[in-house]
Design goal:
Layout lengths: L11 H4 L1 H6 L20 H19 L1 H5 L6 H6 L5 H8 L24 H12 L7 H30 L8 H4 L2 H6 L5 H16 L3 H12 L7 H13 L2 H25 L1 H4 L1 H8 L7 H9 L6 H22 L6 H15 L8 H11 L3 H26 L9 H27 L28 H6 L12 H4 L3
Amino acid sequence: MTKVHEGRLVLPTREDEVAAAGSEFIGGPIGRHARLGGHWLHPVRVVALTAIGMFALGMVQKLPCYNWAWFRGAGSQYTHACYSDIPHLFVARGFADGLTPYFDRIPGDMAYLEYPVLTGLFMEVASWLTPGGGSMQHREQMYWMANAGMLMACAAVIAVCVARTHRNRPWDALLFALAPAFALTATINWDLLAIALTAAGMLAWSRGRTLLAGVLIGLATAAKLYPVLLLGVLFVLCWRAGKWRAFGAAALGAAVSWLVVNLPVMLLAWEGWQKFYTFSQERPIDFGSVWLLISQRTGNPLADANTYATGLTLLLCAGIGLLTLSAPRRPRFAQLAFLVVAVFILANKVYSPQYVLWLIPLAALARPRWRDFLVWQACEVMYFLGIWLYLAYTTSGDKHEGLPPEGYQLAIAVHLLGTLYLCALVVRDILMPERDVVRRDGSDDPSGGVLDGAGDVFTLADALRGQRQEEPEQRVEWGAARGG
């Protein structure tokens, strides 16, 4: 396995015009003879502290709700765009009453907690850290603060993992740390736990620790469903490179770690454990989805939305698989991870505002270009504002304060088009690898681990020609062929 330009840091201000322009706020692009990697300016440290700072700014943005809007009816938390599930579910899911998730039945329609087991454990630990005295309003505030502290730690983990995944491109992680949508949505829900485990799994894979990568992906899947899609990505990449042993180790690790977390609850509280899966299956089309847009525009309730969403997801994932096996050069792990998670989001029955967090670290690794990243982020910020103003409209009665349905439909379209725009650029980079900024220095796949520098064992072109494939070590590596 060849490592190209190991240790030579890529500086965004020297290769990205937007980063160079933005650096004027701190003195301009770094000089040719600047001394890098000092005690305080170590990239990973700077990225982590920046992420913590942006997270804190996001907490400040929630102050109107923290102080009063969460507790004075629905409208104010929407007009101030500071809604969070966390304080509301503290009461609604029984944490305030000391109920045990999955085991104790919750009064009301939900019956049991509708989150995967590891997320439920995270919520429960936060409730243990919440003081028991004082008014219910004070307890909800303290529960949100306890969760925010734990989620901030997850954000720091994500920043560090993204910065370390591409050894010579740590500054690309600033895309995650400075993302506006990250600050705005980080404390809406508990998604950062699964994202942190996913980022750690990708870092482990990039270091060739395939079993550990699988374990972390399995744990991430025990916190949120989407990380399991990365196993599909690794399957087609390892198929093309003939790295079946690596894929087997990752798949085994994921299966075992997922079972270790889930099996005790499955055996002791089956009805509570399955609530997440039955709820996901039974819930109707909801906010932010392409299906809601179609339903509202046509007046068709789309009762078969499950079938449509599942079929579209499978069709698009099959397309990504064909792209992987037919591209002129094997795509990078991060590129395919971004595409498959984006497909899952675009075809899903619901798009909650915090789902953008799933994509931000992957986008930083898949296509670290500031202009296109910020275009996409602008679309997501518009959707973030759109959904809250729409909810303000629907909860304000005859006053109709906020964004009417037509405006919200436009916000959904902007979100969909922004995500599709970034997907199209990633696909273009795959089809035209010479345009991939990560590979400009001769690198193959810095996040690929055992795949980095590996040759092809199977491609669709060779299969269609019926040619016998050469062994990986007999192939000329791309970086060496171009003088890298």
